[in-house]
Specification:
The protein is mostly helical. It is built from five helices and no strands. The chain is elongated, with a radius of gyration of 19 Å.
Length: 124
C-alpha cells in the first residue's frame, strides 16, 4: 500500500519562494504550515489535551515567525526545515509549561493511582 502524501514538498518550496518575493506568506503557504503542524503534533503524546493545543500553537507561532529564515540556496527541502522548526517550537512550549510545575508534580500526574476496587484516586 502506497503512503498518502499530505503535503507536496515542491509546492511548499514554490510558495516559500513566492512569499519571499512578496515579503509575506501566501495564503497557500499559511495553509500548508497549518496542515504540517496538525500532522506533526499527532506524533506526540500529551497528558493534558490543553497542553497539546498549547504546544501546537507554539509550534505554529515559530513557523510563522521564522518562515523567512529558510535558505533556498542551501536546501530545496522546506518540508524538513519547517517540520524541525515546528517540533522545536512545540518542545519550547512544552518546556515552558512544565518548568513551572516541577518534576515531582508531573511524576505524580503520570502515575495511575487506583484503590483496591479499581477507582481512580485523585489526591494522595
Amino acid at each position: 500500500m502506497k503512503k498518502k502524501i499530505y503535503l507536496n514538498n515542491k509546492q511548499l518550496y514554490k510558495e516559500i519562494i513566492i512569499s519571499k518575493e512578496m515579503g509575506k506568506l501566501t495564503k497557500d503557504a499559511q495553509d500548508m504550515f497549518i496542515l504540517l503542524g496538525k500532522n506533526v503534533i499527532k506524533k506526540f503524546y500529551y497528558y493534558n489535551p490543553d497542553d497539546k493545543q498549547d504546544c501546537y500553537q507554539q509550534g505554529l507561532l515559530m513557523m510563522f515567525k521564522f518562515w523567512h529564515n529558510f535558505d533556498e540556496s542551501k536546501s530545496t527541502n522546506p518540508f524538513g526545515y519547517y517540520t524541525e522548526v515546528f517540533k522545536r517550537g512545540a518542545a519550547a512550549g512544552y518546556n515552558q509549561l512544565y518548568k513551572k510545575v516541577g518534576d515531582e508534580y508531573m511524576f505524580h500526574q503520570s502515575l495511575d493511582y487506583t484503590d483496591e476496587k479499581g477507582n481512580k484516586i485523585t489526591e494522595i
